[in-house]
Amino acid sequence: MLGISGGKDSAALALYLKDRHPEIDVEYYTCDTGKELDETYELVEKLNSCLGKNIKQIMAVNPEKDTPHKTTFDHFLAEYGGYLPSSTARWCTKKLKLEPFERYIGDEPTISYVGIRGDEEREGYISKKPNVQSIFPFRRNIWSEDVIKLVLANPNMEDLIGLYNELAPSHLANTILDIAERPISKEFTQRQKLDALLDCSISTFNKVVFEYLKTTEYPVGKLDDFPLVANEDTLKINDIFSILEDSGVGIPAYYDKKKYQVEIDGEVQTGEYARSRSGCFFCFYQQKIEWVWLYENHLDLFEKAQEYEKEGYTWMEEETLEELAKPERIQAIKREHFLRTKRLSKKRNGNSWKDEVLEAEGVGCASCFI
């Protein structure tokens, strides 16, 4: 299964698997919160047409049947007594996306393909159910942390060495076995051992892991073969945008740069802003400039987000949306964003908006999706 969040990475992964591994029968799904941007719904619709396969709608509750509230978000907000989600109480992803997914698959062995890129250092918000195994096709290491920890554990070293003896190419055998036989320690960490084995041969490492998983209850181990064993791709942000552009689906429209005016030292300057992530229009991980973008480009949605705020319950810890929307505050946010972008541009020797997306992804989550 592959979850479509409406963001760039999951969309690109769906297209990548369709093109590179059509033999994998992937089931695509999405969990609608009822609070997405119009641009997000447009991307999902384009992708649905391009894949030639319906993207299944998995809902936490059916607003038309199961609840008096208009959207699934509003239903759970009421259950939480009006307590808005935040980085310290991230109930939205759990209730609106993770739990509906887990309820849908039940206890069936499930492989979940996750669009975390090769230039990201995170595992993602993924299911911990024992019947679900996450695979990361864009990364050099396609396996999840729990699998790596199991396969490379010192007590399992004999099995690891045996599999490498069987599967390693003859010209690499001595080098690989030297690494495989070295125990993990403070001086030689799990990450160092993983990187050393991948440096020797990614596909051989994948074959070893696949054969090892056949001795476990992991879903991939139940397969006769697994096409991604031969995968040696590492896809980064430029590759993601290329996949979307080449497919005709295109870049999510919320990435389109829009110009704004701001006064700096008595002179009017022109800056550019856009949204850096998919997800709900009121996502609490947004930067201040993204709230300004929402205010100036989707005032109706900004006002809806503002309606949710009440004393003690705000999207930002230190500021309400009413305060942020004041003209002098908007100018201050634009000024700070303009100057920061200029500093970063000099540091990068260029003004790549893709770099800005990468920097924004460092704050919170890039996409609230499993």
- CATH classification, class level of the largest domain: Alpha Beta
N→C terminal distance: 11 Å
Radius of gyration over C-alpha positions, nearest whole angstrom: 23 Å
Which homologous superfamily in CATH is the superfamily of the largest domain?
A: HUPs
Question: At the third CATH level, what is the topology name of the largest domain?
Answer: Rossmann fold
Overall structural class, as computed from helix and strand content, comes to mainly alpha
In CATH terms, what is the architecture of the largest domain? Answer: 3-Layer(aba) Sandwich
> How can the largest sheet be summarized?
3 strands, parallel
Please count the helical segments.
15
**Would you list the SSEs in sequence order as H and E?**
EHEHEHHEEHHHHHHEEHHHHH
Integer average pLDDT: 91
* Percent of sequence in beta strands: 5-15%
The total tally of domains equals 3
Gist?
The protein is mainly alpha-helical.
